[in-house]
Fold this sequence. Notes:
This protein is an alpha/beta fold. Among the domains are: 4-39 and 48-63 and 93-146 and 233-306, FAD/NAD(P)-binding domain (3-Layer(bba) Sandwich); 314-362, no CATH class. Helices cover 34% and strands 25% of the residues. The protein is built from ten helices and 16 strands. The protein is globular. Flavin-adenine dinucleotide binds at residues 7-13, 30-33, 41-46, 117-119, 130-132, 136, 152, 154, 194, 226, 228, 249-251, 255, 260-264, 266.
Amino acid sequence: MYDVHVVGGGPAGCFAGIGALVSGKKVLLSEEHGQIGEPEACSGLISRSGLESLKPYVDYKKIYLNTITSARIISGKKEFIIRPKEEIAILVSRCELDKLAAQSFEQQGGALSLGKKVTRNFSAKSIIGADGPASAVADYFGFPKISSYVACMQGNFKFACDDPHQTSIYLSGKDFPGFFGWAIPIDESHAKIGVGVSLPKHPIAHYKRFLARLGVASKPESEFAAVIPTSVRKRTAMQKNGYSILLAGDSAGQVKATTGGGIFFGAQCGMLAGKNSGAPQEYEREWKGKYGLDLALHKQFRTFLNMNGGEPHPLLLSAAKSFFFEDLLSERGKMDRWGQMLTPSILSDYTKIVAQKITGASK
Ligand SMILES: Cc1cc2nc3c(=O)[nH]c(=O)nc-3n(C[C@H](O)[C@H](O)[C@H](O)COP(=O)(O)OP(=O)(O)OC[C@H]3O[C@@H](n4cnc5c(N)ncnc54)[C@H](O)[C@@H]3O)c2cc1C
C-alpha cells in the first residue's frame, strides 16, 4: 500500500516522511508512543540558523521558550565565554517541535500510525529507520553497531539564573567523564540542568553531585534519563532481503559528538533519506557529502577532549584565551556546520582580530 515506511516519529522520522512526500511517494510513518513528542527527552536548544532551515515546515516562533546569546564554559577555575555575533541559539519546546513536524507531514498527505512498535512487520519495501539511538530497525537488518554513547539525566528546576540568556557548560573529567554538565536557562528563575557521562558509566551519582554543587535543593518539575550516540554508524544504508533500508537521525549516529545536539542533523539527514528513499547508495553519498565533514570535526574535537577525560587540558584554555579564540568563535563560530569554518577567510578574520587586540592593548 505504501512506497515508504518510516519507523519513528521524532524529528528525523517526521522530516524523512516529509522528504519522501515531497518527492511524490506514498508514506506511512509509525510511532510507538500514543502521542508524537512524548515523553520529551531533550533540552530543545537549536541554532537559529538550523531552525530557520526547518521553517517551511515548523514555525519555531510558535514553540519558542528563550533566546540564548552566550555560552559560559567552566573548567576548574578557568572560564571561557563565547558571545556569538550571529549564531544565536533558541530554546524551543521539543515536544511541540515534533508535533508541528508531524502535523506538516500529515498536511502533505502522509499517513501516521501511533501506539504501535514496529520491529519487523514493515508496510513497504523501502524503509527509513528513524527509531532513535537504540534502533530496532538497525539491529533487525544487522547494521554495524554505534561505537560510543553517552548516558544523560536532565531535570527542569526552579533556579535563579544570573543571566537568563547565557547557557553554562561545565567540563570536568572527574565530574562528567567523557561529556559535560549543563544549565540552560528557560527564564530568570527556571533552568534545564543535566549531565552526560560516557557509557557504560551511569549518570545518577554525577547528576546528584552536580545539583548539589549548583545548590539546587528543590524537586524537579520534570526529569528524564536518555542516551545519545556520539559516533556515526559505519554504514547507514543498505539493500537486504528485498528491502531498501536507510537510517536517519540518532539511529544513524548523526549527532554532534561535542554537545550531543542531533535535531538539526537528524532533521536534515531525515529529509535527504526521504528524498533518496529506495536508493541507499545515493542517500549515503548525499548526506555524507553535505554533513559528513561537520560531524567528523565534532567527533575529532570530542576525541581530543576525551583524551583528558572530557576536560580540556588546563593549558589549553589559557592558550585559547591568550590567542583570542573567544573573539574568533564569537565572530565566526558556528554551532552545527563546523566544516564551514574551514575557509581561507577565517584566517584573515583571525589575523584582523589579533591585530585589533594587540593595537588596542598597546593604546
Ligand atoms: C538529555 C538530552 C538533551 C538533548 N538536548 C538536545 C538539544 O538541546 N539540542 C539538540 O539538537 N539535540 C539534543 N539532544 C539530542 C536529540 O534529542 C536527538 O538527537 C534527537 O531526538 C534525534 O532525533 P531522532 O528523530 O533521530 O530520534 P528520536 O527523537 O529518539 O525519535 C525516535 C522516535 O522513534 C520512536 N521509536 C523508537 N523505536 C520505535 C519502533 N520500533 N517503532 C516505532 N517507533 C519507534 C521513539 O518513540 C521516538 O519517538 C538531546 C538528547 C538528550 C538525551
